[in-house]
């Protein structure tokens, strides 16, 4: 008697109606709405199929050709391909493509390169840093001595004098650059000079601008950084997961062991296959055209918002994301985000530098051009989107106006279909 239930190898999503309804609801939300959240993008059909492949069934531990489990012939080929493509894409010698997330990539680097209790100097979350760089609520914040730097109050850009002073005063062992809501280019050479002066390592988390780095449209972390981390699903338009890059072979064992067995176990091979796919796409000439459009679109959106009287933090953007300051409009980020979502515009509330308000009801919004550009929007479309945003944040309780914009959003999305 067979132990398999009927349809085990043949039934698809319709075999689970509740799950199917939720997944199709999400597909409709993405199809009919505009994604402006900087932590999201829209992957290709190739990446979807690679991630949804039979690699889901395979468990491996260790590095390619040095696994703890057997049956890894093709897993080795796929992971080695992802590593080779990543190093070629970013012009470095070594890569670890196994991290399940950007936070895991960061945690693995910290564990591999530092001792517990060492001082890490990273950007304050209120100034645009990421929680995985030492927020008190995380393991990193518990296990290391966290120092922070911010931005200049007038320019809202990184204050290198502050970075140097804190690093010297507290003997930082690692300086972290990059974050989740910093819209301007970062002076990696200046940070490396400070790191060298204090005897620290420099780590760059390029999760929000990796695609621009890969295409030469943003300052390159190498050769200044000792190690670079990233996610693979934001500006790289790839599988959800993380990535670590470096050039010094002396760091290899420490970084690799920091990832496994340091912070995670088995490799998610289906995700690694998705990473290999997106790295391959990023090596094509079309990927530079995409990133050129990301920059042009972000700048057009920022300029249109500013012209409508909505203040842009730091006066603009050098990447695909920007911060909007709602203070003068008398509305908080949580209220504005809900109103925008009702219109089919997905954004996230966000702290702004020196924000007097709490994270739950901050003074700002974070916006991105990544996903809209992936579905084909150009400058004209983003100027239109910015106009809708300005109207809504100025009148977030105008339900009739929001409903009208919702119809316009759906009409625009219908012109740029996804997964048709």
How would you characterize this protein structure?
This protein has two domains: 51-282, Aspartate Aminotransferase, domain 2, CATH 3.40.640; 288-415, Aspartate Aminotransferase, domain 1 (Alpha-Beta Complex). The radius of gyration is 22 Å and the shape is globular. Strands 5-11-10-9-8-6-7 form a seven-stranded mixed β-sheet, with helices on both faces. A four-stranded antiparallel β-sheet has the order 13-14-17-16. It is of the alpha/beta class and 420 residues long. α8 links the parallel β9 (201-205) and β10 (227-231). α2 packs antiparallel against α10 (269-282) and α14 (379-394) packs antiparallel against α15 (399-415). It contains 15 helices and 17 strands.
Care to give the gist of this entry?
This protein has 420 residues and is an alpha/beta fold.
Structural class: alpha/beta
CATH class of the largest domain: Alpha Beta
Strand order, largest beta sheet: 5-11-10-9-8-6-7
Strand content: 5-15%
In percent, how helical is the residue content?
A: 40-55%
Distance between the termini: 42 Å
Q: Uncertain runs with pLDDT below 50, 5 residues or more?
A: none
List the topology elements.
Blueprint lengths: L16 H16 L1 E2 L9 H7 L7 E2 L1 E2 L2 E2 L5 H18 L3 E3 L5 H12 L5 E5 L15 H5 L1 E5 L10 H11 L3 E4 L10 H11 L2 E5 L4 H5 L12 E5 L10 E5 L5 H12 L3 E2 H14 L2 H23 L3 E2 L8 E5 L7 H10 L2 E2 L1 E3 L13 E5 L1 H5 L4 H16 L4 H17 L5
Parallel strand pairs: 1-15, 6-7, 6-8, 8-9, 9-10
Antiparallel strand pairs: 2-12, 3-4, 5-11, 10-11, 13-14, 14-17, 16-17
Helix pairs in contact: 2-10, 3-10, 4-9, 6-7, 11-14, 14-15
């Amino acid at each position: 008697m067979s132990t398999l239930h009927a349809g085990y190898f043949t039934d698809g999503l319709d075999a689970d109606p509740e799950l199917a309804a939720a997944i199709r609801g999400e597909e409709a939300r993405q199809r009919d709405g505009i994604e402006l959240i900087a932590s999201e993008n829209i992957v290709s059909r190739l990446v979807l199929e690679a991630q949804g492949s039979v690699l889901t069934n395979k468990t491996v531990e260790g590095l390619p050709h040095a696994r703890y489990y057997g049956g890894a012939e093709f897993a080795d080929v796929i992971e080695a391909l992802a590593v080779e493509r990543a190093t070629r894409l970013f012009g470095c010698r070594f890569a670890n493509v196994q991290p399940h997330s950007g936070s895991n990539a960061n945690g693995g680097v910290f564990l591999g390169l530092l001792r517990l209790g060492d001082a890490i100097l990273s950007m304050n979350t209120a100034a645009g840093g990421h929680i995985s760089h030492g927020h008190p609520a995380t393991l990193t914040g518990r296990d290391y001595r966290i120092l922070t730097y911010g931005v200049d109050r007038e320019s809202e850009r990184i204050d290198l004098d502050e970075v140097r002073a804190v690093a010297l005063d507290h003997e930082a062992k690692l300086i972290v650059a990059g974050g989740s809501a910093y819209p301007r280019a970062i002076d990696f050479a200046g940070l490396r000079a400070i790191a060298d002066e204090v005897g620290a390592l420099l780590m760059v988390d390029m999760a929000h601008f990796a695609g621009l780095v890969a295409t030469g449209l943003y300052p390159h972390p190498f050769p200044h950084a000792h190690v670079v981390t990233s996610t693979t699903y934001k500006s790289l338009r790839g599988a959800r997961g993380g990535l670590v890059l470096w050039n010094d072979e002396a760091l290899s064992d420490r970084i690799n062991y920091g990832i496994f067995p340091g912070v995670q176990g088995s490799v998610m091979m289906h995700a690694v296959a998705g990473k290999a796919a997106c790295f391959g796409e990023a090596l094509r000439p079309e990927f530079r055209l995409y990133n050129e459009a990301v920059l042009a679109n972000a700048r057009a959106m920022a300029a249109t918002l500013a012209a409508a009287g909505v203040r842009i933090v730091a006066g603009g953007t050098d990447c695909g994301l920007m911060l909007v300051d709602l203070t003068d409009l008398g509305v908080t980020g949580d209220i504005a985000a809900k109103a925008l979502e009702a219109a089919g515009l997905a954004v996230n509330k966000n702290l702004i530098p020196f924000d007097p308000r709490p994270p739950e009801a901050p003074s700002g919004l974070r916006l991105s051009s990544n996903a809209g550009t992936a579905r084909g929007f150009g400058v004209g479309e983003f100027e239109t989107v910015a106009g809708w945003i300005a109207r809504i944040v100025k009148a977030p309780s105008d339900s009739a106006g929001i409903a009208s914009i919702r119809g316009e959003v759906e009409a625009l999305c219908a012109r740029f279909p996804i997964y048709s």
